[in-house]
Structures are given as structure tokens and as C-alpha cells.
Amino acid sequence: MADSTDDYNFQSSEISLAPLIEDCNLLGSLLDDCLKSEVGTELFNKVERVRALAQCAAQLANKHDGGASRMLSQRMADELMNMSLDEAMPLTRALGHYLGLTSIAELHHRLRRARNEGKNPKSCDEVFERLITEGVHPDDLYHEVTHQTVEIVLTAHPTQVNRRTLQYKHSKIAALLQQHDRPDLTAEERDAVLQDLVREITALWQTDELRRERPTPIDEARGGLHVVEQSLWAAVPSFLRRLSAALKKHTGRELPLNATPIRFGSWMGGDRDGNPNVTAKTTHHVVALSRWMAADLYLREVDVLRFELSMSNCSDTVWQMATDIMEDNRAREDTQDAAAQKLHMFTHPKDSEPSKLPDGACLGWCLHAVTMPA
Q1: What is the band of 10 on the pLDDT scale with cuts at 50, 70, 90?
Q2: How many distinct helices (H) and strands (E) make up the chain?
Q3: I want to staple 60 with a disulfide (CB 3.0 to 4.6 A). Which of 69, 287, 303, 328 is the partner?
């Protein structure tokens, strides 16, 4: 969990921005090719002219040439005001995609730089080392870390503009950029990565960025659960493993297995706050949806463990634990089956009555038993 506000110091000569510039140029050129094909050369030239005017105005302003900067800014404003709506819409979309792809490249460069440097001044390892150097006792550090609780409350924001489809495509482009950095790629593999980038950027342009229908509270909850599935489910365990490793390095003890320094709450489907569409039925639906997703995520992990834990032998303790679990599950299933059978007999009494004699029974004996006086 790091603050990224000071990740870039553009005045520092120690940070090379060449890889970032290369990624921006790569994504920008692929988007250029897409625009030429999708909107035509004439409109693409207008997009390029507006971008050039904006860049030149910004550069002149940075060099304290305010007069020339204002002149170019006014020229750009005139260019935009003279456009028709049919031209302004794709131009606005194109500029938005340029900024989005640049943000993807910047985030990728920040992660790449952190890996190359090997040390992150905001990592748990560095923070714990600094605390111990400043006089904090390892036992006190261990106690505070293992007893801290951070609760993150998830809520569904209706102001979230980006659709889940676009978020997925942005993640795919970031993964392809990471793959493109691999130095061991062959020429064919690198061309395949570039073709994948072309497809993703083309699909990105052809995807509507905005929701055309107002999302329901359940739709908003699905968006929040998407964050859990795509980000938090993998990110939180990864962070806790790094926290445990740093704790063991500086205190000699790992994070306890039952420690939960990060907890989650949720307002999704329950935050009424004057919203008449959030009813008890909505809350019940969202809770059921959340439970279903949790069960599905755990089932995926169990399925992976089935192949990872392929050992055929185990200790007596583990075997006894597994036996107890199987017996508990068997007893629980028997109890549930008995309860279901009783419920069925109560709700369908006719179905529980026998429709024929058991095999080997004598009809005469049964009639005699029924008519025989007590």
C-alpha cells in the first residue's frame, strides 16, 4: 500500500524516462493506426493538429513564454469551436484514450522501476528496518503489527464512469506491456504481443465508454464485487505474505495464521441514504450475490490446491484432522437429509404413505393384524 504522489521526480537525473517514453510512443502509434482506419485520415489530421497545438502551448508555458502560449491556446480553441458535433465526439474520445493509454504506461513504468531498483522505501521491509533503527524494540513491533486492524469498507459508487469492460481491457494492455518488456522474447513472440496490443486497442476504441442506462443498485454492487474478484482477492494475500516475510526478518516471527490485520466491510446493497431503490429485497439479493462470489472464489482456490497438494503420504495429525472433517461432513449431510425428509413428510403427507406392500409381505396376515381385537 504505497502512496504514488512522489513516485516521479522529473528533475532528477537518476530516473530514466526513456522506457516510459518508448511505451507511450508505442501505444500512441498503435492508437494512431486504429484512428486512421476507424475515423478516416481527415478527422485523424484534425486530432493530431489539436494535440500538437496543446503540446506546444504547454511547452511554451513551461518556458515562461506566456504570450506565445496564449496565442496557440486561442488557436486551438478556435479550431475546436469550429468543429461539428460529429467531429467533436470522436476527437474527445480519441484524446481520452490517449490519456488512458498514457496512464497505463506510467503505472507500468512505476512498477518496472520498483522491480529494477530492488528496494521500495515504502515497503514493509524498509519501514520495519527504519523503525528498529530508530529504537523500536522487535517485540513491540511484532505486537503492534499483529494486533493492528485496518477495516476497508467497500461501497458501490454510481459516479464510477469506466465500465468493467474497459477496466478489463486496460488490465490486458498493461499485462501485454509487461510481456513486451521481456528480453528473452523471440521475434515471432514479440510480433505476436504487438498484434495482441493492436487487437486490444482496436476493441477499446470500438467499445462504448459510457453506460447508456442508469445502473441499478444491484448493477453497482456487481461493479464493487468485480473489484474484489479482479484486484483484492490476489492483492491482499500477496501483501500479507510480504508483511509476514518482513516481520520474520526483523522480529524472528512470522505473522500468525489467524491474524487478520485487514478486514473488509461493505455498504453495497445496504446503503440506503435516501435511495428509494435500495430495499430489503435489494439487500438480500446483494448479500446472496456476495456469498455466491465468495464461495466461487474459494472453490477455485480449492480446485488449484487439489493439484498443488498432490502428496500421497501425510503425518498422523494431518490424517486425523482430515478424518474428523470427513466425519463431520458426513454427519452434517445425514442431519440435513433427515431434516429434509421430515419436512417433505410434513408438507406432502400423502407422498409418505406406502403405495404397495413390502416385498415378501402377506396380504392376509396384514388384514388379520388390522382386524384382530386388542
Answers
A1: very low
A2: 14, 2
A3: 69
